């Protein structure tokens, strides 16, 4: 009985190695091979291997005495097949895939002639798998090389994105072998310029104006190239004019009147649209003081710090205590850095021992680690403890 089982196993344990190459004889990269299909005898499909991780790939457990054929799919498209091979013993075969074609895109704004830099064009098969992508430079994408669509049901989809906006409908594409084709895309991205206004609000939702302190608002393009800076006017507006629609970033810095330090308030993506109000109400996006508790009996001071952002920040608190509010100070202590998670609060605890009678004032500074300490909030001099003896 054991001998019979071994005999059956040997009959069915035929293997066939398949190597996929291009017309130059170079092996096709496995990340481009979508699938392999193997057929037995009259054409019934035996197995389908999706995303094979090896080239050559070896089919095992084939039945001796039958004939097999392998079809190859590259970029999601049918790309060639082997000959019918008789599985009388272990064998190997090579499949040379079809020649592909080239395409590129020229992408313009809605006027048809103002080209777009930085538009992302993505080529995918109908199952949504991305095969090629690239950004426009001086309006043009790189040339994309893709397998041809040799079957009537086959096609690629092209997607056009600028920043976070879809600027053209999905496009169905056919590719001919050895072809080179350029497509001109007139997108929905407006060529009309717009104005953009930024207002600043503190953590108490109070609008900041020119009279409250010194503001600096930096504007960057989508590649974070600095375009310029503005300050708030007496109405609390910082206005940029003649901006083309698209994605930009702002960084906000602010120094309240009589403050020791300027503060970094964070950064944000802004999307400038045409024919729409372009207003950002910017509120502090970095950790700030959210309450202070003191106890003169034991000299304890607790500073609560809230992180309003969706990111975490390595945060520390500097506590200064002094009677005349001038350096050298009676106490100048920086806490250890603590990672404050998104939308979370941390408490920083201090102890103070007086070195004489009088009224002591405190100054509190919150800072984050941005390659060196960057102040994000501060509380000006306030009396905290009074000692008569």
SSE blueprint and pairings:
Blueprint (H helix, E strand, L loop, with lengths): L1 H11 L1 E8 L11 E8 L3 E7 L6 E6 L4 E8 L2 E5 L3 E2 L4 E6 L4 E8 L11 E5 L5 E6 L8 E3 L9 E7 L2 E9 L6 E7 L7 E8 L11 E9 L4 E5 L7 E6 L2 E11 L6 E10 L6 E5 L4 E8 L4 E7 L6 E10 L8 E4 L3 E3 L4 E7 L6 E12 L3 E15 L2
Parallel strand pairs: 1-8, 9-15, 16-22
Antiparallel strand pairs: 1-4, 2-3, 2-5, 5-6, 5-7, 9-12, 10-11, 10-13, 13-14, 16-19, 17-18, 17-20, 20-21, 23-24, 24-28, 25-26, 25-27, 25-29, 29-30
Radius of gyration: 34 Å
Output the CATH homologous superfamily of the largest domain.
Immunoglobulins
Shape: elongated
Domains (count): 4
Annotated CATH architecture of the largest domain: Sandwich
Strand pairing plus helix content: what structural class? mainly beta
Strand content: over 45%
Strand elements, count: 30
The major pleated sheet works out as: 5 strands, antiparallel
Can you tell me the CATH topology of the largest domain? Immunoglobulin-like
Name of the level-1 CATH class of the largest domain: Mainly Beta
N-to-C terminal Cα separation, in Å?
A: 104 Å
Describe, in plain words, how this protein is organized in 3D.
The structure is a single chain. This protein folds into four domains: 2-96, Immunoglobulins (Immunoglobulin-like, Sandwich), CATH 2.60.40; 101-186, Sandwich (Immunoglobulin-like), CATH 2.60.40.10; 194-283, Immunoglobulins (Immunoglobulin-like, Sandwich); 288-387, Immunoglobulins (Immunoglobulin-like), CATH 2.60.40.10. It is mainly beta. 3% of the residues lie in helices and 55% in strands. Strand 13 and strand 14 form a beta hairpin. The protein is elongated and about 105 Å long. The strands form eight sheets. Strands 2, 3, 5, 6 and 7 form a five-stranded antiparallel beta sheet that branches. Strands 25, 26, 27, 29 and 30 form a five-stranded antiparallel beta sheet that branches. The chain has one helix at 2-12, and strands spanning 14-21, 33-40, 44-50, 57-62, 67-74, 77-81, 85-86, 91-96, 101-108, 120-124, 130-135, 144-146, 156-162, 165-173, 180-186, 194-201, 213-221, 226-230, 238-243, 246-256, 263-272, 279-283, 288-295, 300-306, 313-322, 331-334, 338-340, 345-351, 358-369, 373-387.
């Amino acid at each position: 009985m054991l001998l019979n089982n071994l005999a059956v196993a040997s009959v069915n344990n035929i293997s066939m190695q398949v190597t996929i190459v291009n017309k130059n004889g170079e092996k096709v990269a496995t990340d481009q091979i979508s699938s392999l299909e193997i057929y037995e005898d009259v054409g019934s499909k035996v197995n389908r291997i999706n995303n094979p991780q090896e080239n050559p790939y070896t089919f095992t457990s084939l039945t001796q005495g039958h004939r097999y054929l392998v079809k190859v799919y590259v970029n999601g498209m049918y790309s060639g097949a082997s000959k019918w091979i008789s599985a009388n013993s272990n064998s190997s075969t090579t499949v040379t895939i079809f020649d592909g074609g080239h395409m590129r895109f020229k992408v313009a704004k809605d006027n048809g002639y103002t080209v777009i830099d930085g538009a992302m064009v993505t080529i995918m098969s109908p199952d949504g798998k991305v095969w090629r992508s690239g950004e426009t430079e001086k309006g043009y994408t790189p040339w994309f090389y893709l397998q041809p669509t040799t079957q009537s049901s086959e096609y690629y989809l092209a997607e056009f994105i600028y920043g976070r906006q879809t600027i053209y409908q999905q496009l169905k594409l056919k590719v001919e072998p050895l072809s080179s084709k350029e497509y001109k895309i007139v997108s929905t991205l407006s060529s009309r310029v717009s104005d953009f206004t930024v207002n600043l609000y503190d953590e108490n939702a109070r609008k900041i104006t020119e009279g409250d302190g010194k503001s600096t608002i930096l504007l960057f393009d989508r590649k974070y190239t600095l375009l310029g800076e503005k300050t708030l006017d007496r109405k609390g507006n910082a206005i940029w004019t003649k901006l083309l629609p698209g994605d930009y970033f702002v960084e906000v810095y602010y120094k309240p009147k009589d403050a020791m330090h300027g503060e970094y308030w964070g950064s944000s993506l802004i999307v400038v649209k045409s024919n729409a109000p372009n207003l950002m109400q910017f509120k502090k996006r970095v950790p700030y003081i959210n309450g202070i508790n003191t106890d003169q009996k034991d000299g304890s001071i607790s500073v609560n710090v809230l992180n309003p952002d969706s990111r975490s920040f390595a945060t520390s608190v500097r506590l200064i205590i002094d009677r005349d509010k001038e350096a050298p100070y009676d106490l100048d202590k920086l806490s250890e850095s603590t990672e404050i998670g998104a939308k979370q609060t941390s408490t920083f605890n201090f102890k103070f021992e007086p070195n004489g009678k009088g009224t002591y004032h405190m100054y509190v500074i919150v800072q984050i680690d941005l390659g060196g300490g960057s102040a994000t909030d501060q509380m000006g001099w306030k009396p905290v403890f009074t000692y008569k003896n």
